[in-house]
Amino acid sequence: MTGNNPLKRKTLPFSAIIGQDEMKLALLLNAVNPAIGGVLIRGEKGTAKSTAARALADLLPEIEVVSGCSFGCSPDDPELQCDRCRERYEQGGILERDRRRVRVVTLPLGSTEDRVVGTVDVERAIREGICALEPGVLAAANRGILYIDEVNLLDDHVVDILLDAAVTGINIVEREGISLAHPARFILIGTMNPEEGELRPQLLDRFGLQVTVGGITDLEERMRVVETVGAFEADPDRFLEVWEPEQERLRRAVVRARALLPGVTIGRDLTRQVVAACLSLGVMTHRAELTVIRTARTIAALEGRDEVLAEDVKRAMALAIPHRMRKRPFEEPKLDPETLDSLIGGDDIREDGGGDNEPDDSPSSGGSDGDGTSGRTGKEREQVFSPGDAVDPGAIRPAEPDRVIRKASGRRKPVMTRRGGRSVSVRQGREDLDLVGTVRAAAPHQRRRDRGALALAVEPGDLRQKVRRGSAPVGALFVVDASGSMGTERRMESAKGAVLSLISDSYIHRDRVGLVAFRGSGADLVLPMTHALDRAALCLAGIPTGGRTPLAAGLLKGLEVLLSEQRKNPDLVPLLVLISDCRPNTGSGGSIREEVVRASALLGERGIRTVVIDTETSSPSIVPLSLGFGRTIAEHAGGRYYRISDLTAGGIGAIVRYEQGLSVESENKYA
């Protein structure tokens, strides 16, 4: 329960949470069987994700731990003991014990690798001259619950470490002079808002289960939520007392299921159906069927049975399979009941992995079928084109590191960082101290220093801090030509196909994206910079085509938007992607060419990385002919120029080699 400490945070009881049955089931299954591998809870803010994760601890029985052990080792099970406790246990020593409730350890956003794994205790090393470990988050979470809010905003290498420990149950610490292993067995709960960016598929696969939660739409259910929370806030102690019998019922169910689980069996025929279903759905990772079987056995145990039924498997697949299925970006992972019924428990079991359940690869349409429909009346007919063929975004992906020190919070561009990321060197400083670097700097001066009782005399000038390399977020602004000339030869279809491919790439890398469209006499910000990349795709599909081509206005609008974003977030790496035939025919009154050149030069002066994708097509010839200003823009902006045909499968290999510096051939070869 909550104890009598008035400062201790009281949590709404798990059994009192209204709705969200799938989320509560996934959490209970992991409470019974942590080997399932944790649960990832996706959903918008305010949908009880954090409340449910924290409330789960109250359903778990108390545990016995070795007194004074930083890792919460079991006094009776050598498999759950650190090196020191196991050595004492095997020598027949008596391990004193304490009894305590299961802890919920929350991983702070922005945690470094040292904070997660553990590192050298700098103070003891300097004062006592010994290498002692300062335990990290994994040590505190052992035999408890590790809760990661906004897991999709963590650095990928930190998520890798956490998921490795969750799977193996062991944390290995190898730091300056220390090599130690300790148990790290915990129930892993991650929550995320998909609008803020996605996890890579490789990381998604490491979570055993995934559920998607949303706001309750039923009026009466929402009324119950309001009344329940109101009663809890008015008198928490009384509320907890009222719900205690239901909490105790769930506690007994968890304990009973844990005892029953080892004896639960699943038939070979049912196992075969699970494997065949995974193949039919195109799921290649072997974790899929392993997790389904573990989850199905746990469902049976939770319901008091010693044999798995087909219905258990269906429920398990709904939790363990969708996030492992291949899908198009912006699609919600799901597995409908009709598909489950056809795969499990039926007579026709497919084993060829072929599949009618592959995602549809046809482009999403936000307007007409490609012939276009009029968006509004005017002197020139407007058309709305569907996206055309996809392109490979790898050719324009920012890859080279820069030397600007930023905060590492993205995945895309390697940069030198203040915090987060991996340590690559040291420099003089007092923040994020590097022990080895500090000791090395101080060691040559020990003979002439008065050490007193210290093992090492360190002066301020000896202090060294870590220099880390991480990834900064990219702000990708797509400046799209929506003028009438883009309707010629279906250029707008190709342009939208290119932009949709680049947006999909940004979706994976957690970039912020925005859309500027220019036509007629000016340029408009169609979509402000956002992480909600599904909105970008919808806005792109609905952009109409028609009117004149104010190219300079589009470039200046893009510059304005990116500079505004940089003022809000100085760590942002700005990227402007121009999609146009680069043939302006209107300006602000002066020379059209001079206006375009001035706007392009401003992009270069302000450090905006610029990529020009020219949609103009030309007839095959020895020297491809371009009538637009694409090369001029790229030259004056210090950016790169590509023809849209270069970004297809045929020409992408040469461009990627050129971009990576592996080819010395001229850029003109690919123009």
UniProtKB/TrEMBL annotation:
Domain of life: Archaea
UniProt-listed Pfam families: AAA_5, AAA_lid_2, VWA_2
Entry GO MF terms: ATP binding; ATP hydrolysis activity
SUPFAM superfamilies for this protein: P-loop containing nucleoside triphosphate hydrolases (SSF52540), vWA-like (SSF53300)
UniProt feature, compositional bias: Basic residues: 406-421
VWFA domain segment(s): 475-662
Gene3D superfamilies: Magnesium chelatase subunit I, C-Terminal domain, P-loop containing nucleotide triphosphate hydrolases, von Willebrand factor, type A domain
Record region (Disordered): 329-426
Family: Belongs to the Mg-chelatase subunits D/I family.
Protein name (database record): Magnesium chelatase subunit D family protein
Annotated organism of origin: Methanofollis tationis
